[in-house]
Amino acid sequence: MSSIVIIHGSPTPGSRLNGLIEFVESNLQEKGIEITHVQVAELPAEALLRANFKDESIIAAVGKVEAATGVVIASPVYKASFTGVLKAFIDLLPQKGLQGKAALPLFIGGTISHLLSLDYALKPVLSVLGSRNILGGVFAIDSWVTRLEGGGFELADELRDRLTNAADELAEEIEWLDKRSQAKAETK
């Protein structure tokens, strides 16, 4: 079965980023894709800051990434880049920790001027980690995501369309990667 790990890079539990993540997750689950999560801000701060590769929580989180066919890497944009807490976790992944995986970046920021942070801040890091299936990603502006009184989020129509397309593309990529992996296993 295809699986994706969603890496939440926000240090804020109530972040509007959750609206994007929930929408994409629901879309992928409808396609029968298994989803796991890594809430980076919930990992032990001491282990992240000191790069403690032997911490059980870090081992478990890295294991989720290793087991997945695809990753969704989600972060708010601070100072034209992804969060420091996300960077601390990414630094704990093995050198080729994303090799053979499809990656979908999801970013949210206060202004469209941070749009290129996907291309110039995150994608080079994903490439260094071995991902060759880095999708275009989705950048959203905070004002496109509204918190609802009873909980949850409402997304602007254009954002919903872009997230749907991105989730569809990710599902197609991981299906292709799974088929390729099965074919390789059968020829051995």
From TrEMBL:
Its EC number is 1.5.1.38. GO terms for molecular function: FMN reductase (NADPH) activity. Pfam families: FMN_red (PF03358). It is an enzyme of class 1 (oxidoreductase). Residues 4-144 form the NADPH-dependent FMN reductase-like domain. Gene3D superfamilies: 3.40.50.360. It comes from the Bacteria. PANTHER family: FMN REDUCTASE (NADPH). This is NADPH-dependent FMN reductase. It comes from Cohnella soli. The gene is ssuE.
